Amino acid sequence: MAKSLAELKAIREKKINEINLRHGKEGYRVVVGMATCGIAAGARPVMVKLMEEVAANGLNDVTVAQTGCIGSCRLEPIVEVYDGEGAKVTYVHMTPEKVTKVVEQHLTSGKVVDEYTMTVVDGKFINPEVKA
């Protein structure tokens, strides 16, 4: 059935608001590396679990998205969490089981789950919170 102009405008407005969440000052944007290496390492079940947990917890201010190569194949699956100010936390070697803790602590309470972050690579300390 054809939609009226008012219905189309409402759909457009809703989608623009969803997109603006990615650039707003509220909520989180969660990005899962879904290139070949990420998928081979288990990124697909991680992404599915993230979407399930976000929905189950009613986190309407959290956007879950996928991206291609993040550039650190040996650390896959990788999940990056951006806050409303643009600060990024990178979680590495993620599993569906780890997702539950990240959602409970980071996305719900704002506390970074340090033990899952990329803090030591090749013996060098890397700050897990990087301003984008």
Descriptive notes:
- With 132 residues, this protein is an alpha+beta fold.
- It has one domain: 3-Layer(aba) Sandwich (Glutaredoxin).
- Helix content is 38%, strand content 21%.
- The chain has four helices and seven strands; from the N terminus they run αβααβββαβββ.
- The protein has helices at residues 5-20, 36-41, 43-56, 96-109; strands spanning 28-33, 62-67, 79-82, 87-91, 120-121, 124-125, 129-131.
- A five-stranded mixed beta sheet has the order 2-1-3-4-7, covered by helices on one side. It has a two-stranded antiparallel sheet with strand order 5-6.
- α3 packs across α4.
- The longest helix is centred in the N-terminal third of the chain and has 16 residues, at 5-20.
- The mean pLDDT is 85.
Quick structural gist:
The chain is of the alpha+beta class. The chain contains four helices and seven strands.
Features:
about 130 residues; alpha+beta; Glutaredoxin; two-stranded antiparallel sheet; 7 strands
User: Could you spell the SSE succession in H and E letters?
Assistant: HEHHEEEHEEE
Which fold name fills CATH's third level, the topology?
Glutaredoxin
- Oligomeric state, counting identical vs distinct chains: single chain
For the termini, the CA-CA separation is 44 Å
Residues in β-strands, percent: 15-25%
C-alpha Rg, in Å? 16 Å
The number of strands is 7
Structural class computed from helices and strand pairing: alpha+beta
Indicate the low-confidence ranges by residue numbers.
none
CATH architecture: 3-Layer(aba) Sandwich
Total of DSSP H or I helical runs spanning 4+ residues:
4
CATH superfamily, called what? Glutaredoxin
Chain-averaged pLDDT: 85
